[in-house]
Amino acid sequence: MRITFFFDFWRQRHAFISKLNLIEQRYEGNVLLWGSLDALSNLWAESSGKKECSNSGKRIIFDAFLARYGGELFQLVSLPDVWSKVDRGDTCINQKKGVKLPENVSTFLSTIGERRTPEFIEQYQTRCTSQDLSLGAIMNKTLANSPETNRTELEQWLTLSRYGAIAYKEMRNAYIHEGRPGKRTHDFKLYGWAERPTYRSSVYGTPPIMGFSVEFMLGVFKRCIEEFEVEALALEVDPAPD
Q1: Cα–Cα distance between 18 and 11 in angstroms, integer?
Q2: Which of 23, 31, 101, 145 falls between 20 and 30 A from 242, CA-CA?
């Protein structure tokens, strides 16, 4: 079946990257991994994800793909990224139309997640993903506080702080276009580095520094292939390009 052959191809790509020496060939591993995830997300957007991602940019497609197939971690929004954007006045939703988040919404988001001035010891405590909230949870809290808020515009703004969107900017874009990781990422082997994204910034530190190791993302890539294939077969939608 053509659908199965399509996913066999991506399983072969996963196997090839997995066999690399990720100490000596870490750069090559990152380039191949992020390029593969990007390509697969775009093929999803042109097939079974077409309705969800029509007219979306590549970063939004990449994030939506990981949110759908990559596991619950990719539902999370980096709260320090939200705080950072509000602090520097980056609350524009549509530059052409001059649409910004309402002032009361920006104020609410500036402290969401119990943000506060850190105590002395908190300045040296590394943030972890369990301290972040899902996009849905932030939406619900914000809309409960400001029910008149435009839901679609709020979601568009918050999505750019979700883990997949950050990974696209700091990893995919930086490796493909600049040949290096982004300035707001890291490759240190912090606790849990092979099982989840990790922060190298403090609990309330902004802007955040987040790492997405090749080892962790290889597991995500495998999961995306498997979950995407199940859906494609169930819907009988062939994602292979003509």
Answers
A1: 10
A2: 31
Cis check for the bond before 102: say yes or no (omega within 30 of 0). no
Q: Is 179's pLDDT higher than 70?
A: yes
Taking the C-alpha atoms of residue 216 and residue 197, their distance in angstroms, rounded to an integer, is 8
- Among 239, 240, 229, 218, smallest CA distance to 14 is for 218
| 241 or 186, higher pLDDT | 186
Tokens of 204: 């309330």
Determine the distance from the C-alpha atom of residue 226 to the mean position of all C-alpha atoms in its chain, rounded to a whole number.
19
For the chain, the 3-state helix, strand and coil shares in percent, each to the nearest 5, are: 55, 5, 35
Q: Which residues contact 80 (CB under 8 A, 6 or more apart)?
A: 127, 199, 201, 204, 205, 206, 207, 208
The predicted-structure confidence for 85-106, as pLDDT tens digits, reads as follows 999 999 998 766 678 999 999 9
pLDDT for position 157:
97
pTM, entire model: 0.96
Residue 160 tokens read as 């750019």
Phi then psi for 204, rounded to 5 degrees? Answer: -115, 15
